[in-house]
Structure formats: C-alpha cells, structure tokens
C-alpha cells in the first residue's frame, strides 16, 4: 500500500512537471535568463507547489503519525554547514548549464532523448560518488533536504 | 529558443507537484525531495527501497501520460553538447547530495515547512544558476 501510494505520488508529481512545462529545459533556462526574453512560468510553478505543500505540512503537524507509516521523517537540522553552501552552488552551476534539475531529468526518461540519457547517467555518477564518499556517515541520517 | 510565459499551465502543474508532495508526506511521512529519494535508493536501508523506486518510476510515467493528454506540455528543447551534458549532470548529481536537496526538497518542501537551511540553499542555487545562464548566454558566448 505504501509503495502504491508512493508510485501514485510520483505519477502526479511527474505529470505536474510536464503540464507546467518544467520538463522543457529551454523553459527553465528562459526563467533563469533574467537578461534575456524572460519567461516567469517557473515562479508560478513554485508558488502553486509551495502553497499546497505548505498546506500538507500544516495538516501533518496536527497528526500524530502518517496514514501508512510509524512516523514523519521531517528533517530537524538547523545549522548552516559548508556542505549546504557548496552543494547548492555546485548544483546551481549544473542547473544553469543545461536547465535540468533531478526531477525534470528523471521525468524525461521515457522521451527517448540521448541528451537526457547522458545527463541522467552523469547525474547518477555524481550522486553515487558522493554516496560512496559518505556511506557510513549517512546510513542513519534522516531523509533529504535536511 | 525563447519560450512563452504560460501562467495557467504553470499554476496547474505546480498545484499537482504540491499535491503530490503533500500526499507523500501525509501518507508515508516522507519528504518529496527528488535528489534525496534518489540518493538514498543507491545504498538503501533494508525495507526502504521499494517506495523510492515506485516514486522515481512514477515521474517519467506521469510525465509521459501528461504529454499524451496535453500537447502544450510537449515542448522540449535541449541542444547542449555531450561534454556540457556530462559536466552539468555530474554537478547536479554531486551538488544535490552534498547540499542535501534540490529544487523539490529545498525549493518546495523545505521552504513550505519554513526551513532556514532550505531558504538559504534555494537562494544560493537560484542565484548561481541564473549567473551561470547569464554568463553562458551573454558573457562567454559558449553553449
């Protein structure tokens, strides 16, 4: 059941990326290129996503536990470490070069684009190299975006 | 190369993304951060892999369904050389693991729950990405 719900959420998320045009790297670059022919669509996407996501967190705060799991896995870290800063900067450079972040890159996988395959392969390689370097440390850490 | 501002589709797609994030949180207790879900599926803790793979596989499936249903979502343009794709892919993969999140984990879920770490990360990667685009398109003349 938990796996099925996660799959459905993935489908809805992927559909949202495509419907909003965020699976088109040219559209993302059009947002980032503030001195070009600016396309503010990405701001609408983030605004709407933030609103509903925030509603989800507000609901979650009133519940003792999720419907299908023992507890919420919400990050608790509050410190600013050099890794957070360096990671965000490296990610920003890569994002700006091509206009793909992890979600849209994966959402484009069934498109049959060699460019997407190359990018996703390299992205997995980059993620894998970081995981290999910090494997012991991260095993017991909480999930994502901490 | 320039794309058209499409606020309606942006808001609709964004709402679906937010709905999926809220759904995943309320049902499974998990944050819908793509880089985190992906990164932790590489060396998964026992019993923690199936939901990650289901979510990750749902992304291209949902995107594929949406492009069938709505031709406005069919726009797709990527013209970069393989070397640039490789470099950018490695930077995105490594950077999001090092910084614990990407556009979804920090940009949507993190800011939605008021995390100061996520606000700082989002401002940093947005600024760096915009600077990169401006440099590549208007400064260096390479692509």
Features:
heterodimer; A: 146 residues; mainly alpha; 0% strand; B: 143 residues; 6 helices; globular
Instruction: Tell me the domain tally of chain B.
Output: 1
Envelope shape of chain A? globular
Write down the secondary-structure element order of chain B.
HHHHHH
The total domain count of chain A is 1
Unreliable stretches covering 5 or more consecutive residues of chain A: none
Please indicate the percent range of residues of chain A in DSSP E strands (runs of 2 or more). Answer: under 5%
What share of residues of chain B is helical? 55-70%
What composes the largest sheet of chain B?
none
Distance between the termini of chain A: 26 Å
The chain-level structural class of chain A is: mainly alpha
> Quaternary status of these chains?
heterodimer
Number of continuous helical runs of chain B: 6
Number of strands of chain A: 0
| C-alpha-based Rg of chain B, rounded | 17 Å
Brief characterization of the structure:
The complex is a heterodimer of chains A (146) and B (143). Chain A has 146 residues and is mainly alpha-helical.
Question: How is the topology of this model organized?
Answer:
The complex is a heterodimer of chains A (146) and B (143).
Chain A: H1 2-19, H2 25-32, H3 41-61, H4 82-98, H5 102-107, H6 114-133, H7 135-138
Chain B: H1 7-28, H2 34-39, H3 50-69, H4 82-98, H5 103-112, H6 116-140
Helix pairs in contact in B: 5-6
Overview of the molecule:
The complex is a heterodimer of chains A (146) and B (143). Chain A is built from 7 helices and no strands. With 146 residues, chain A is an all-alpha fold. In chain A, 52% of the residues are buried. With 143 residues, chain B is mainly α. Helices cover 70% and strands 0% of the residues of chain B. Chain B contains 6 helices and no strands. Chain B has helices spanning 7-28, 34-39, 50-69, 82-98, 103-112, 116-140. Chains A and B meet through helix 1, helix 2, helix 3, helix 4 and helix 5 of A and helix 1, helix 2, helix 3, helix 4 and helix 5 of B.
């Amino acid at each position: 059941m938990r796996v099925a719900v996660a799959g459905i959420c993935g489908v809805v998320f992927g559909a949202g990326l495509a419907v909003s045009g965020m699976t088109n790297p040219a559209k993302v670059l059009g947002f980032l290129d503030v001195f070009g022919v600016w396309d503010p669509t990405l701001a609408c996407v983030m605004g709407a996503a933030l609103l509903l996501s925030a509603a989800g967190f507000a609901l979650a705060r009133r519940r003792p536990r999720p419907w299908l799991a023992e507890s919420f896995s919400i990050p608790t870290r509050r410190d600013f470490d050099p890794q957070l800063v360096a990671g965000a900067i490296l990610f920003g450079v890569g994002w700006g070069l091509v206009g793909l972040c992890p979600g849209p890159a994966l959402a484009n996988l069934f498109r049959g684009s060699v460019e997407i395959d190359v990018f996703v392969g390299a992205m997995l390689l980059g993620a894998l190299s970081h995981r290999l370097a910090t494997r012991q440390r991260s095993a017991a850490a909480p999930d994502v975006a901490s | 190369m320039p794309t058209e501002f499409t606020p309606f589709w942006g808001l609709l797609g964004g709402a679906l993304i937010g709905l999926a994030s809220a759904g995943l949180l309320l049902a499974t207790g998990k944050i819908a951060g793509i880089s985190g879900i992906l990164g932790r599926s590489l060396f998964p803790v026992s019993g923690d892999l199936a939901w990650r793979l289901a979510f990750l596989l749902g992304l291209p499936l949902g995107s594929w369904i949406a492009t069938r249903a709505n031709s406005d979502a069919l726009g797709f343009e990527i013209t970069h050389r393989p070397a640039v794709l490789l470099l950018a892919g490695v930077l995105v993969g490594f950077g999001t693991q090092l910084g614990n999140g990407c556009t979804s984990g920090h940009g949507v879920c993190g800011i939605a729950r008021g995390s100061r770490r996520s606000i700082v990360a989002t401002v940093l990667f947005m600024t760096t990405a915009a600077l990169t685009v401006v440099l590549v398109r208007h400064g260096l003349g390479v692509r």
